[in-house]
Amino acid sequence: MTTENATIYDVASDAGVSIATVSRVLRGESSVSPKTREKVEAAIARRHYRPSIIARSLTGKTTKSLGIVLPKLLNPHYAMIFTGAQEEARQSGYSVSLFPWSSLHAREYDPATMLAERRLDGVIVCVEYLPPDQSEELLTALRGLKRFMPVVLIGCVPPDYDFPAVSLNAAAMTKAMVKYMVSLGHEKIAFIGGVQEDTDPLRRDVGYEEGLKEAKLPCIASYRVYCKGTPEEGKAGLDSILNTLKPEYWPTAVIGLNDLVAMGCQQSAREHGLALPRDLSVMGCDNLFCAPYLLPALTSVDTHQQRVGARAAQMIIRGEPARETMDWEIIHRDSCAAIRENRPDAANDSVI
Amino acid sequence: MTTENATIYDVASDAGVSIATVSRVLRGESSVSPKTREKVEAAIARRHYRPSIIARSLTGKTTKSLGIVLPKLLNPHYAMIFTGAQEEARQSGYSVSLFPWSSLHAREYDPATMLAERRLDGVIVCVEYLPPDQSEELLTALRGLKRFMPVVLIGCVPPDYDFPAVSLNAAAMTKAMVKYMVSLGHEKIAFIGGVQEDTDPLRRDVGYEEGLKEAKLPCIASYRVYCKGTPEEGKAGLDSILNTLKPEYWPTAVIGLNDLVAMGCQQSAREHGLALPRDLSVMGCDNLFCAPYLLPALTSVDTHQQRVGARAAQMIIRGEPARETMDWEIIHRDSCAAIRENRPDAANDSVI
DNA sequence: CTGAAAGCGCTTACAG
DNA sequence: CTGAAAGCGCTTACAG
């Protein structure tokens, strides 16, 4: 299927020079006479020769490849991160390979081992909300990885993690989401979040509570639910709120962990006979490509994930680890409406 | 940032054996005495030693890494392919890195060079519709790549491409889509496809025409439009049909190149005051995760992309190249309605 | 069951 | 400006 590739020896003998000289023209060193360079280049072309990065890596200090650890790629949120990292890496001739960190305990070929064996020039690890015990485990795995290569964290990175990172202050973001809902007149604001028992002080939860508190609104346990961030679970989350509460207590606004959850909420609301956005304002996060095409078009928060991925890759490639926080912005669309229009009698009001 | 890693020499001297012996226990050879094995394993653990795949690759014949060439990852369609390949690869300890083939002519660090340099164990290349001239160019690039590693093609692979492949018979699929619309009573069926001047006999175009022909329906040029497969272009595509035709000639059904295009069509239809699916049946392809959450939920075709990716990876890993066609199935949801129900007097329309 | 030695395909001082 | 040689971290016959 594959023919044997030419090596530097083939090229050298073809060109009548030593392999050291071939190596020099390959690396673009100026200390080669034009004549020699020409001969070597001709031989390279004739042989379709490409130096092996494998052999190069063994000698030099770089493998020209990065790793990225992501929960999964099917949520476009992660695809955006990957794309950002990949595009940045490519500029410098780096490739990036994916390692889904689904389980730290994969029996064989677990990501940590695969990563370590590969001697990558660095790895970007996306940190998700984790309950305290798993968080400890993650930290252990990360420190193990650090022995083999630079590690840069992205995502919701707790401030006490001692790693370079490009993180999101999810608390501040969620607080802003609550405040936005409040500014529309909402007081009954539900929240469908991620893992409950997390201890990260910057997690969404904290921002939700702070936002409510600042608006002097009660924090109602029945309005808060946790899930794993899929549309199905988002739907189940709002379902459970709507099913356990009498309609007069139903929230008039719901903030989803991410757009996937928000999509599920829209579905749930519709099945409960709610008109959107009249009866319920829904807000998501990640600003997925499909957000504008939902009905109503989903208001979301753009967290600049491509930039996050690119920045993390940059830190590794340039060897300039740092700790940064990525900014974000609310993207206004049609899924959030002022509470005025949410009144039951709004139907009788003049249509705008 | 990184401490020096232990090598096989460190482990050998720690354990008081030769590196050959360490290598043997590493590779799980049975010809090592339990006692020796134990000593070596202890040394490995103490040193946190992991063999370098780089060094291994130089000796052995495998790099334990695959490449995949995809147009982009932001369309979940491609993320599914990647995921399928990645999950399959991981089972055998292979990693997979992504090379977006945006341009064959990237000046530096073009994918073909990056791939060749890396001496991967194989590469999966996703073939898209291409106008004839670019197709020739692709073929040249692929043949170049083949010199360095096994190449497996996926996607809409023309039958005359001489490569192992897992392909989709897009013509048969599109024909089935047309027939489905016909079975619902539609006669004015629009089609928003990909590149126009492609010569592949299995392309969507061909199936569209065949489907129409079989139903003895005229093939109307105004109903056919081409685009690049984004929601924006899908919307622009249907816009142009709707804007240039008097309403009585408007299609009652539209088949999109993919779900992204179909999403754009839904948007366009709404902006033109059409009720969905009453006034227009819309069908997509790829069965993206968001299809069920659109309004109306989008009928689509599941082309089993994860399986495609997995199968291609398998061919490379097992060294069993083949030429296969992936099957597909229509996933029925709410965006297609019988022409009967398309009448203005239809009872339960979708409430916006 | 174990070790000494050659070799994989490069880069990099070191000489000249 | 160019070459001989050592070395990167492994695997794999080949001996014993």
Protein model, in words:
The structure is a homodimer of 352-residue chains. Chain A is of the alpha/beta class. The first copy, chain A, folds into three domains: 8-57, lambda repressor-like DNA-binding domains (434 Repressor (Amino-terminal Domain), Orthogonal Bundle); 65-168 and 306-328, Rossmann fold (3-Layer(aba) Sandwich), CATH 3.40.50; 171-301 and 330-348, Response regulator (Rossmann fold, 3-Layer(aba) Sandwich). Chain A is built from twelve helices and twelve strands. In chain A, helix 1 (8-15) crosses helix 3 (34-47), helix 5 (76-91) runs parallel beside helix 12 (305-318) and helix 10 crosses helix 11 (259-271). The N and C termini of chain A lie far apart (67 Å). Chain A binds a DNA duplex (16 and 16 nucleotides) through residues 7-9, 17-21, 23-24, 26-27, 31-33, 36, 51-60.
Key structural traits:
homodimer; 352 residues; 434 Repressor (Amino-terminal Domain); Rossmann fold; 3 domains; 6-stranded parallel β-sheet; DNA-binding
Please render the helix and strand layout as text.
Two copies of one chain form a homodimer.
Chain A: H1 8-15, H2 19-26, H3 34-47, H4 53-59, E1 65-70, H5 76-91, E2 95-100, H6 111-118, E3 122-127, H7 132-146, E4 151-155, E5 165-168, H8 170-183, E6 189-193, H9 204-214, E7 224-226, H10 231-244, E8 253-256, H11 259-271, E9 281-283, E10 300-302, H12 305-318, E11 323-326, E12 329-331
Parallel strand pairs in A: 1-2, 1-3, 3-4, 4-5, 5-11, 6-7, 6-8, 8-9
Antiparallel strand pairs in A: 10-12
Chain A binds a DNA duplex (16 and 16 nucleotides) through helix 2 and helix 4.
